[in-house]
Amino acid sequence: MRSRIVRGLAASGLLLALSAFMLSAEAQTQKSTPQTRLVGVVNINTADDQALELLPGIGPARARAIIEYRKAKGPFKSVDSLSEISGIGERALERIRRHCVLKGKTTAELLQ
Fold it and tell me: How much is the pLDDT for 59?
């Protein structure tokens, strides 16, 4: 019984050490990755999926959902209408609002 406990503790210690190593490696990677920031705006009524994905928190699935919404319901009448799309809540909307427009050109780009 005692040997089972010792083996269990050793396995737990190994997992803890491995977890710490992985977290440390992830932190190093994040530090060495250059930070990017979004500059400009995305016209949510005309942007393609790649331009929509420039918006913080908008990945391929949400970009497709935005495009499908436009096809089904027509152009957005307000940026707040994005909240009708699954996965875009109030917090997400606040993050992207300043980068969204309803008219004009999409000028958004990521800068390092």
Answer: 96
pTM for this prediction: 0.68
Q: How large is the average pLDDT for residues 61-83?
A: 97
Beta carbons within 10 angstroms of residue 92's beta carbon = 18
Name 61's Cβ contacts closer than 8 Å, sequence gap at least 6.
87
Could you tell me the CA-to-CA distances from 97 to 22, 26, 44, 90, 100 in Å, in that order? 35, 30, 11, 10, 5
Task: Round to whole Å and give the CA distance between 95 and 82.
Answer: 12
CA–CA dist 107, 96 (Å, integer) = 14
The dihedrals phi and psi of 110, each to the nearest 5 degrees, come to: -95, 130
